[in-house]
Design brief:
CATH topology: Rossmann fold
Bound molecules: shikimate-3-phosphate
Order of helices and strands: EHEHHHEHEHHEH
Shape: globular
Distance between the termini: 31 Å
Number of strands: 5
Structural class: alpha/beta
Strand content: 5-15%
CATH class: Alpha Beta
Number of domains: 1
């Protein structure tokens, strides 16, 4: 069996996870800019490669198909790329293979947002554009929100973003990552 050497921390992809509408894309773009790295939004990459929007893919091919495409892309990006900032769709991290490759090869940041903040501030902005929210009552969405927290709890670092602007959240992530690099990989 091929022996895997651990990727140096400074070269690992930085991966943002969290519930839909938490700001993974906006914050990821800011982190990428601050670290002079490329940013990949997994949903946008799926849309680009398959020539259809995520809602179209859900409608035409079904959620199971989307989850397979999503999983394969994330496994590929985590295994074959370095030095990237990746933002994952909110449901991606529910898949065990996705968690495994992200935690093994990347540095995973959980963007943590309370249910109250999410419901008041984020839900109105995304309710019409996320197929997973379609035809669900608020109680069902709340259930989904809390069900997913146990998967999101498997991360390397967490940023509570309730009261933060995207710029402040990005700065916290960058400060934390630089601290980690300096402590665990000094003199590089
Ligand atoms: C999903 C979240 C979406 C997108 C798809 C499914 C989910 O991404 O991947 O609509 O299951 O939570 P965002 O987290 O960027 O909204």
């Amino acid at each position: 069996m091929e022996r895997q050497t651990a990727i140096p921390l400074r070269e690992r992809n930085i991966i943002l996870i969290g519930f839909m509408g938490a700001g993974k894309t906006t914050i990821g773009q800011l982190v990428a800019k601050k670290l002079y790295r490329d940013f990949i939004d997994v949903d946008a990459e799926i849309e680009r490669r398959h020539g259809m929007s995520i809602p179209e893919m859900f409608a035409q091919k079904g959620e199971a198909y989307f989850r397979q495409i999503e999983r394969e892309l994330i496994v590929d990006l985590c295994t074959n790329t370095r030095l990237k900032i990746l933002s994952l769709g909110g449901g991606a991290y529910l898949q065990e293979d996705v968690r495994r490759v992200c935690l093994a090869h990347g540095i995973v940041f959980f963007l943590d947002l309370s249910w109250e903040h999410w419901k008041e501030e984020r839900l109105p902005l995304i309710v019409d554009s996320r197929p997973v929210l379609k035809n669900k009552t608020l109680e069902e969405v709340e259930q989904l929100f809390f069900q997913r927290q146990s998967a999101y709890a498997l991360h390397h670092s967490r940023v509570v973003i309730n009261e933060l602007e995207a710029e402040q959240a990005a700065k916290q992530i960058v400060d934390s990552i630089k601290w980690t690099w300096d402590v665990y990989e000094p003199n590089r």
